[in-house]
Amino acid sequence: MLRSLGSCLLIVSLSSSLIAQNAPLMGFSQESSQRQRALEARFDSYLCAENLRDWMKRLSARPHHLGSPYDKANAEFIAGQFRSWGYQTARYARESAGKRLSAAEQLRLDEILYKTERAMTGQGLPRRDWFRHQIYAPGFYTGYGVKTLPGIREALEQRDWREAAEQIGHCANAKCCCGRDR
Questions:
Q1: Residue 24 neighbours by CB under 8 Å, 6+ apart
Q2: Which of 156, 137, 133 is CA-nearest to residue 147?
Q3: pLDDT in tens, 131-181
Q4: Residue 70 and residue 4: Cα distance in Å, rounded?
Q5: Tell me, what CATH number does 122's domain have?
Q6: Does residue 139 lie within any of the structural domains?
Q7: Fewer Cβ close by (within 10 Å): the C or N end of the chain?
Q8: Nearest 10 degrees: CA dihedral of 6, 7, 11, 13?
Q9: C-alpha to C-alpha distance for 157 and 169, rounded to whole angstroms
Q10: Rounded Cα gap, residues 174 and 133, in angstroms
């Protein structure tokens, strides 16, 4: 009896994982889900733990606040990695062609950014419902030090997996204007 129950559970879990692999990603059409999965698989094929360790050491070796020379060096390193894998960064493509964003493109980018920011302002954060911004907020445990994705990050730091999953859900379900064909 126990053995057959175990077999049934194994079959159900395997079949549900196969169904999940073929089901469209949330917010994507079937066709764009397939393209996205292929893109992610290609990207994943370039990563290995040893490289990640080396890259993290390199990227965190010196202070790199926004606009600093080391911030620029980090951005160029990351863009170089993507180019070495066959991806083309928008900035590199434009600069190599001697182009800048047109006024219309800049307006569209600004719209994407402000709509994303608005979409990521929802219910209050855990333990401080007066902070509604899901992208950044003062840390609950750090005072005024800013935290990115504070609901998720603080739940992970506290090893509160239920709250982390809940906060990930809030962020993932935000109706962002990402400019993708979804």
A1: 30, 32, 33
A2: 137
A3: 888 888 887 777 777 788 888 888 888 899 999 888 888 888 776 555 444
A4: 60
A5: 1.20.930.40
A6: yes
A7: N
A8: 10
A9: 17
A10: 12
